[in-house]
Amino acid sequence: MPTTSITQQMPCSSAEIFALLHDYPRRLEWDTLLSSAALTQGHLTAGLGATSLCVGKPWLGRIGIETEYVMWREGELAAVRMINQPPFFGSFAASIRHEDTAEGSTATYRLTFRAKPVWLRWLLEPVMLRVLRMETRKRLKALAAFLRAAPEQAGK
To answer: Which sign does the torsion angle of CA 8, 18, 48, 34 carry?
Structure first.
């Protein structure tokens, strides 16, 4: 199962990053991967059991992945698993772990997935992994840059 992990130094505390990252009405202010992001199924805030739908940019095919939060430790760790059946993804799960440091904090995003259809995994998974790794790195850097440009934005 393809897996990758990306760590990014952040200019704010773990609590500030965590709050902004899971604030869906503000997600598109910094997230370079998504064209839309919203909580679903009547959920008003992110947290254990909440669901969300994140849709990729047009050049990524506007694939929408709906997830459910399966782990939630405020300010420290959140994990999701895919609950819909979008094109090309048989399964998808991700977590983000935050740790405070002397310089601010770090955010470590880990994802794992399986491609579909099964008979094309040999071709799809290496390409998808490369794109997901590149886009994850890009979006975490964008989040850090957003917070460096306007540190007060984290708690807005």
So the answer is: negative
Q: Which residues of the chain have pLDDT under 50?
A: none
Provide the CB-side half-sphere exposure for 47 (13 A, CA): 5
- Coil, strand, or helix at residue 2? coil
Three-state SS for 33-102 is CEEEEEEECCCCCCCCCCEEEEEECHHHCCCEEEEEEEEEECCCEEEEEECCCCCCEEEEEEEEEEEEEC
Structure token digits, residue 152: 């007060």
Report the SS3 class of residue 154. coil
Q: What is the pLDDT of residues 12-32, one digit of tens each?
A: 999 999 999 999 999 999 999
Cβ(37)–Cβ(55) below 8 Å: yes
Look up the pTM and report it: 0.93
| Per-residue CA distances from 64 to 9, 59, 117, 119, 146 (Å) | 28, 13, 17, 22, 24
Say how far apart CA 85 and CA 126 lie, in whole Å. Answer: 20
Tokens of 53: 């739908």
Predicted local distance difference test score (pLDDT) of residue 126: 98
